[in-house]
Design a protein that fits this description.
Helix content is 33%, strand content 40%. The chain is α+β, with helices and mostly antiparallel strands. It folds into 2 domains: 43 residues; 162 residues, Lipocalin.
Length: 209
């Protein structure tokens, strides 16, 4: 009887240890799974792209244009004041969904009109995703020249490995409820705080609809 009691107690202790070990292993698996899901969400560009697409829809009116200072070419720097003139004060752009499927844009400035399609994409630099507006022209001027007046060949060229040139038709984008900023011809530069977009031409718009 004593032997049976001792054996039963040992079985209970063993079962308890096994259960505790199982719970520990299960907890570790849950933590790893959660960490994996968190990493996947951070590296998945789709939520960012979808949110920016929805935020971009509407009608925007040109507000301001800035040319970054610094090591820009003399030709680009000389355009600074010209670009800030009134030639684009009446420029408007509308981003919309055609048949709830196709992402489209149309713009008008005086007698100049443009149409085309667009897509929001994100590129990874280091550990961060940076969003870009990609435009595909149907009619009129190419989109970057329409909003800025700067041809794609007038831009900086990175001179070291810590910079990466952004393709001319990949436009850096930042959008809030009332403001839209589009950065053209910039570079991605590695700074002490990580990758950041710098230089180039920045056009700002206000939402009117």
């Amino acid at each position: 009887m004593k032997l049976f009691t001792i054996f039963s107690m040992l079985m209970l202790v063993f079962a308890g240890c096994t259960s505790a070990r199982y719970q520990e292993m299960q907890s570790e698996r849950d933590k790893l799974r959660a960490a994996h899901e968190d990493a996947r969400r951070k590296t998945d560009p789709r939520p960012m792209e979808d949110n920016l697409t929805q935020g971009l829809l509407g009608t925007w009116q040109f507000l301001d244009i800035e040319v970054a200072e610094g090591d820009l070419s003399e030709e680009l720097a000389a355009l600074k004041y010209e670009l800030q003139a009134t030639a684009r004060q009446n420029l408007r752009i509308e981003f919309f969904m055609d048949q709830n499927v196709f992402r489209r844009y149309r713009g008008k400035n005086a007698d100049v009109e443009v149409t085309g399609s667009f897509k929001i994409s994100a590129r990874r630099y280091g550990d961060a995703l940076f969003p870009y507006l990609r435009v595909f022209r149907d009619t009129g001027e190419r989109f970057p020249e329409f909003i800025s007046g700067v041809p794609p060949n007038v831009r900086d060229t990175p001179d070291n490995a810590s910079m990466q040139l952004v393709p001319w038709n990949w436009i850096g984008i930042s959008v809030t409820k009332e403001r839209l900023s589009l950065t053209l011809f910039g570079v991605m530069e590695l700074t002490p705080n990580g990758w950041a977009q710098s230089r180039g031409v920045r056009c700002t718009f206000k939402r009117i609809k």
